Amino acid sequence: MHSHHSHSGQFCKHAAGTLEEVVLEAIRQGFEVYGLSEHVPRYRQIDLYPEEEDLTLAQLSSQFAQFLVEAHRLKALYASQIRLLVGLETEFITALDLESLDALLQKHQGQVEYIVGSLHHLNGIPIDFDRPTFEKAIESVDGSSAFLCAYFDAQYEVLRRFHPEVIGHLDLCRLYNPTLQFSEFPEALERAKRNILYAIDYGALFEINAAALRKNWDTPYPGVDLLQIMLQHGGRLALSDDSHGPHAVGLNYGRLPGYLERAGVADLWFLEYSETPNGYGRHVRAVKMEQNWATHPFWSRLS
């Protein structure tokens, strides 16, 4: 089995454990492919989270470079036990983040094998920190409809500019409103469809992200409505645990098969390393699971 999205306390202050501990837990659970995708640095002091107040911007950049070194060390060390992928998760707070990601990818060309394209802010405000801050972000753009539209517009800019191989938690914009139906916000729904079709066209994988299940959702990301749009248009799905430490590796994976079966998901995909770079200069390619995902022995091994 596979996951394309993870973090460690060694390189992410709101996570726990070392990167190696995360890898060892993935091996213990029987993961075959596991993606290491720490957050890119942020470039304004105002954008640091409370637990990062003792860090400088230079330290954040150095920390990310250290992550790449350690991730590639672990990839080589445990190659006989697991196929590790080394990637990153995007941020888009202001245009500076996009410009800086361009520079980072050039600087670390060959070391960043894939991108998880995600948003965690809107109008400069975190949307996954806590409910009051989430509500503040909604208020900053004059209500729910404008908030959802702005989220999908910002997401589209990330897709258009970087063509991430994995689309991270597509509908994080309803984190604290998990029962929200996009059909009630037609302008936002059109933008979501636009993004989905664009990502399908360039070959992205959409993650089925189990982290929503530990955040009081009844489903993983994305919710049923957007998942059905993906399936109707041939979208390719991949699994992610979005773990924030060894304690969360594979967390709630046991609840994924029921969701996938109810939605009628026939195929799952994963990334694998490729010596030949893809069209965006990164060294991965998407592969369809040959075995029926529902009968994979991984599910029976879950503790």
TrEMBL record:
Entry-linked Gene3D superfamilies? Metal-dependent hydrolases (3.20.20.140)
Q: What is its EC number?
A: 3.1.3.15
Which catalytic reaction applies to this protein? L-histidinol phosphate + H2O = L-histidinol + phosphate
SUPFAM superfamilies xref list: PHP domain-like
Q: Which UniProt keywords apply?
A: Amino-acid biosynthesis, Histidine biosynthesis, Hydrolase
The record's listing under CDD domains reads: PHP_HisPPase_Hisj_like
The PHP domain covers which part of the protein?
A: 4-210
Might you name a Gene Ontology BP term for this protein? L-histidine biosynthetic process
Q: Listed GO molecular functions? A: histidinol-phosphatase activity
A Pfam entry, by short name: PHP
One term under GO cellular component:
cytoplasm
Cite the annotated pathway: Amino-acid biosynthesis; L-histidine biosynthesis; L-histidine from 5-phospho-alpha-D-ribose 1-diphosphate: step 8/9
Where would you find the membrane-spanning parts of this chain? none
Query: Which EC class heads this enzyme's classification?
Result: hydrolase
Under the heading PANTHER family, the entry gives: HISTIDINOL PHOSPHATASE-RELATED, HISTIDINOL-PHOSPHATASE
Q: Which family does it belong to?
A: Belongs to the PHP hydrolase family. HisK subfamily.
Q: What is this protein called?
A: Histidinol-phosphatase
Q: Which organism is it from?
A: Favolaschia claudopus
